[in-house]
Write a structure and sequence with these properties.
The complex is a heterodimer. Chain A is α+β, with helices and mostly antiparallel strands. Chain A is 31% helix and 20% strand. Chain A contains five helices and eight strands, in the order ααβββββαββααβ. By secondary structure, chain B is mainly alpha-helical. Classes of the chains: A alpha+beta, B mainly alpha.
Chain lengths: 212, 147
């Protein structure tokens, strides 16, 4: 009995560290090529972290309208927004335009949700991207994304599953299912900047400066 | 008063489980198994630690869940508006409770103003404390005199 308890105590304490080591090695091996890629979000975040940037940037207390031409939006377009000082790129947020001034987004407190598109006028940096695809394909991507409403937001979710979402992953997945990969870097995580750099999209409008 | 060794073990298990379950989500489905294993480990700890009185139970679970309790209170009371970096507290809470995220993610209700998972996240400290209750019940049964 005493021996069983000791073994159980050891198991509880050692099982998860062992899993961490094994899983890290497996993920490392699966993404070895990304280590040499200076555009990868891991590299970007690490670099910015050492310069004191941690989160999604500093939102000005009284943001000025960026004059993003929201009237040019078409269903299936991608909206990008960003604040100065974002740790993972020029843009910190992404949304999928649904039509009728509605945009599908993901936030930690709402999960996957639908909002009014108007707040994209408040971002310091903003952009409208149009995916090079048929309108039927875009509609199917929208339909898929809408089915994920209410699902969980997790900021560092990997690409493989369909249970944990962040603002850019859901857009990537919706188009990836239609055979369109809009992740320019094929990264392990998808920062909004990867959409901007993709050759599967064209830039409709860009406000507040050009990403590096 | 506080069983430092027991509390330390619980922190270690949670921190390593946090990393393991996040990494396991790379392989779709594996994280759910590890999350169930995590809950089983916590229940196991509660039995092994021979917590038989309510006082000893609280002396163990409250310090263990203190970070989550504080974060939840700060978020629920709206103190995030007055604290530096207030908008990040919910992210920290979610990352801290990563071991429960695979189980919480099963819930979704698009008709609520805020999804069910968000509310479950806010009461995650209570869920974790509940995982430690079986040991209390088990050890009380073994040692009825200690009630």
């Amino acid at each position: 009995m005493e021996e069983d308890m000791k073994n159980s105590q050891k198991f509880s304490l050692l099982i998860f560290p062992c899993c961490v080591v094994i899983l890290t090695l497996l993920i490392w091996a699966d993404n070895y090529s990304l280590l040499a890629e200076h555009k990868s979000v891991f590299f970007t975040y690490s670099h910015n972290f050492t310069n004191g940037q941690v989160g999604y940037g500093r939102q000005p207390s009284a943001p000025e309208p960026n004059n993003l031409p929201l009237d040019q939006l078409e269903p299936g377009d991608i909206l990008l927004g960003g604040w100065p000082g974002c740790a993972y790129g020029h843009f910190s947020h992404a949304g999928l335009y649904l039509g009728d001034n509605r945009v599908l987004e993901s936030y930690v407190d709402t999960g996957v949700t639908v909002n009014s598109v108007s707040h994209y006028s408040d971002y310091t940096y903003a952009c409208i991207l149009r995916v090079k695809a048929d309108q039927k394909v875009k509609q199917r991507a929208i339909d898929y994304a809408l089915k994920q409403q209410g699902k969980l937001f997790y900021p560092v979710s990997f690409k493989n599953d369909e249970r944990y979402w962040n603002c850019s992953k859901i857009i990537w997945k919706a188009y990836q299912r239609e055979g369109i990969n809009i992740d320019a870097a094929n990264d392990i995580w998808i920062p909004p900047d990867n959409f901007y750099q993709s050759d599967q999209v064209m830039i409709v409008a860009l406000k507040g400066g050009v990403p590096h | 008063v506080f069983p430092i060794k027991k509390i330390g073990r619980l922190y270690l298990i949670q921190i390593w489980a946090l990393l393991a379950i996040w990494l396991a989500s790379y392989f779709d489905g594996l994280e759910v198994l590890l999350s169930i294993l995590f809950v089983a480990c916590i229940i196991g700890e509660s039995i092994i630690n021979q917590t038989a009185t309510l006082a000893s139970y609280l002396h163990t679970v409250l310090p263990w869940q203190l970070p989550g309790i504080l974060l939840s209170i700060i978020i629920v009371t709206g103190l995030t508006l007055h604290l530096p970096g207030g908008e990040y507290y919910i992210f920290v809470l979610e990352l801290w409770y990563t071991p429960l995220i695979p189980l919480i993610s099963i819930s979704s209700d698009p008709f609520l103003p805020q999804p069910l998972y968000y509310n479950l996240l806010l009461i995650a400290p209570l869920i974790m404390m509940a995982c430690y209750v079986p040991g209390l019940a088990y050890n009380r049964k073994l040692n009825p005199a200690r009630k």
